[in-house]
Records
---
Amino acid sequence: MFYSTFAHIFKITMKTNRIILNETSYFGVGTRNIIPEEVKKRNFHKAFIVTDNDLVKFGVVKQVTDVLDAASIPYSVFPEVKQNPTVTNVKAGVTAYAASGADFMIAIGGGSPTDTAKAIGIITNNPEFSDVVSLEGVANTRNKSVPVIALPTTAGTAAEVTINYVITDEEHVKKMVCVDPNDIPVLAIIDAELMSSMPKSLTAATGMDALTHAIEGYITKGAWEMSDMFELKAIEMIARHLPNAVENGKNLEARNGMATAQYIAGMGFSNVGLGAVHGMAHPLGAFYNIPHGVANALLLPYVMEYNMPAALEKYRHIAEAMGCDTANMNTEEAAQAAVNAVKALSLKIGIPQKLNEIGVKEEDLLQLAESAFADVCTPGNPRDVTIDDLFALYKKAYK
Ligand SMILES: NC(=O)c1ccc[n+]([C@@H]2O[C@H](COP(=O)([O-])OP(=O)(O)OC[C@H]3O[C@@H](n4cnc5c(N)ncnc54)[C@H](O)[C@@H]3O)[C@@H](O)[C@H]2O)c1
Ligand SMILES: [Fe+2]
């Protein structure tokens, strides 16, 4: 009797938590040299490299193809991915992959190439979803993606460890977040040397994307002890390493710190969700092609202020992780210290502070709010939001 009552209570009160991560991940400067060993072990034959033209131009792709060449691993390169990649990008990629004769993919890039590789891999192995628009939200594909080896070249999105990919639907002017455990790269190689060519502004924006993941993932409705552990550690590491990575891009200790921190943030948020910062950043990408990191970085302090009543105690931990001593502060003061620390970091690394500075039009704000309300990330926000709340937040961030 006691047991069955206990079991009943257990069943109805305990939430099930799920963690999905890569099969294998490698971390460390120069760790891309592990690729041939892994390719051989997995019996892969020919690689299809998904990347963008700037990374070819800056020699980042060559840092990886040199390793493939030395091991005589054949490959073809698909360099057409745009920032905020589109449905057209994915379609072209699916066709090119089929023609390539490859049996696995290597994604070299920021979130844009990695997300495009995920979409190509999912569609190739689940042809009933040939229209990527049908994959928006939580998709019920049956088969795993074509195997992807992901090498991030920015320290921000953590797309190499997440179960999400984000594709812009040009026709409906919308960024679609697709959530599918079948898309996760089998192998993630986190080699900070691939990130040292990032200019200051890109380092700053992508680093603030990682901080946004860590903070939103820490206070999101689905957060729990294990995701909290990842996110707090990520906040602490980002606060410590991001200014140095921006200041001196060749500082491999700072680059490696950021590379690891953004991955740790991804281990958490991919499994628990995000919030209104990402919900509001996605329409800015779709409407104006604003870089994802810039959109998040600019919005983060405004949304943190809005969310304060729903996460007061957690804000004290954020403030502490960012280096503030809150011992003599009451709960509200400590929470405000967290917002102030984020604002100070953002100013220090040169993030634009108002939407009117980055090409947003005031007359679009209501439409942006409607789009943010419908975004997959918004329901994870710790404090509920209406379209009016989102409109007010965009207005506050406007000028
Ligand atoms: N899958 C996920 O979980 C997830 C999470 C967050 C964001 N995203 C998506 O990721 C995309 C943004 O990715 P991102 O911020 O990494 O940028 P990105 O991939 O769009 O790249 C931005 C620019 O930076 C350049 N670049 C990248 N690495 C460089 C390097 N090492 N040196 C010099 N230039 C370099 C690229 O060539 C490109 O021009 C957005 O579409 C966003 O929605 C996905
Ligand atoms: Fe993001």
---
Amino acid sequence: MKLYGSYTSPFVRHVRIVLLETGLACEFIETDQTGSTAKSPTQRVPFLEDGDIFLTDSTSIIKHLRERVGQEYCKTAKELDELCLVNTVMDTCVNLFFIKRDGVDISAIPYLQRQAARIQSTLAELNQQQWPTSAPYNDAQIRLACFIGWAKLRKQVDFSLYPNLDAFFTYANQHPHFQATQPPQS
Ligand SMILES: N[C@@H](CCC(=O)N[C@@H](CS)C(=O)NCC(=O)O)C(=O)O
């Protein structure tokens, strides 16, 4: 099995944590934008090769890995909805990060302002929910901690506005699988 990704991507980090949880052997192939453009129709990481199977999204990859070892993936509609909320905020935030890095003033473009507002309203909703203070973490929770780690590293969100999320991250970040998958801090 081969996982293509980067060490900074929060989507890839979620997959790397699931690999640790499942104990499956998988080669990690560090892939930049040139590599993902050449090999995946989405032009994004992660993507996975497992024999004849080729998967292009972290969610399908995680479902595949968990099913291979008989683990559950988003068992309830509520957990799936939480994962979708985290996905929305993560996807939107990563997208705006790349747009800003290209020099675009997002305050000048109404739809990008809507995207920025979507991040804040979704985080406000997530901040009102109860989050665990210790493992086991489900996939929505693992994804949330991966997102918060990325957003802090890239300074994309002021988490003093979301104290429950900040506290959740402090606990999750101490877990050995989060420690083992820390993104490079530079
Ligand atoms: N829905 C995808 C999103 C993956 C994604 O956005 N990956 C980012 C890295 S964090 C990427 O490769 N972006 C490159 C680009 O947008 O060109 C997933 O869950 O795998």
